[in-house]
Amino acid sequence: MGSLSGKNAVVTGSTSGIGLAYARAFAGAGANVVINGFGAPEDIEKERTKIESDFGVKAVYSPADMTKPAEIAEMIALGEKSFGSVDILVNNAGIQFVSPIEEFPIEKWDQIIAINLSSAFHAIRAAIPGMKKKGWGRIINTASAHSLVASPFKSAYVSAKHGIAGLTKTVALEVATSKITCNCISPGYVWTPLVEKQIPDTMKARNLTRDQVINDVLLHAQPTKEFVTSEQVAALALFLCGDDAAQITGTNLSIDGGWTAE
To answer: Which of 34, 63, 192, 259 is the most buried (most CB within 10 A)?
Structure first.
């Protein structure tokens, strides 16, 4: 019996990167999972069936668009309908855009705030009634080292992640007596498609080579000079779902190679 046997999780932005690592970690501990995110349908189906065959749990896919509140509520409802309850909610969907603020496209600002911040509000709002009814819940938000410190050219992302840290604290206080915890995890640079994709833009914005971006921009911030792995982030999330973490709530847990210690 896995530690999450009989529990059901919804993980947004889980078709690749950190989100997929969360989904696989929960499934490995015995939870059924709802995965969500964009990608080629055949790739998503491959990951979904792999979760089921690797771990002997049920996995369903929600195509909910994280900019659409009604679809987010439907995703939570799908989890409740498919499995009977949503016990664990991980708000992980995120996008990035790098630009000086005076050139920052307004629609990119709106999109990042919607996907990286507002989607978490909508999902939590929809999930809490079921968690309260069951008398147990775990809400985990993927924040970022950028929930604590800033970097230039990332105004929308940094604002959204600071917002996630505030939302986490507020929700934790509201559900403190309901056996529901709410925490955020703040990774430093994790080697994911999201990070890889922003390298060309950063090369252009800062007039650097690929290697310079990796070593002088990305890993510059991390004293360990190593990327965090998706699996390490997922292991922390798994711990937060356990009984030993029942009194950890409203916290922002850094996993950033020492970045925010400086």
So the answer is: 34
Residue 185 pLDDT class (50, 70, 90 cuts):
very high
Token reading at 189: 């640079």
Confidence of residue 2 (pLDDT cuts 50, 70, 90): confident
Could you tell me the two tokens for 193?
Answer: 């498609």
pLDDT tens sequence across 67-99:
999 999 999 999 999 999 999 999 999 999 999
In angstroms, rounded to a whole number, what is the distance separating the alpha carbons of residues 29 and 173?
Answer: 28
Range of the domain at 128: 8-188+229-261
Verify whether residue 22 is a known catalytic residue.
no
Residue 206 covered by a domain = no
32-36/59-62 β-pairing: parallel
The one-letter amino acid at 262:
E
In a domain, 205, yes or no: no
- What are the Cα distances from residue 136, in Å, to 37, 100, 131, 173? 26, 43, 6, 15
| 142/18 Cα distance (integer angstroms) | 9
In a domain, 49, yes or no: yes
Using pLDDT thresholds of 50, 70 and 90, give the confidence band for residue 1.
low
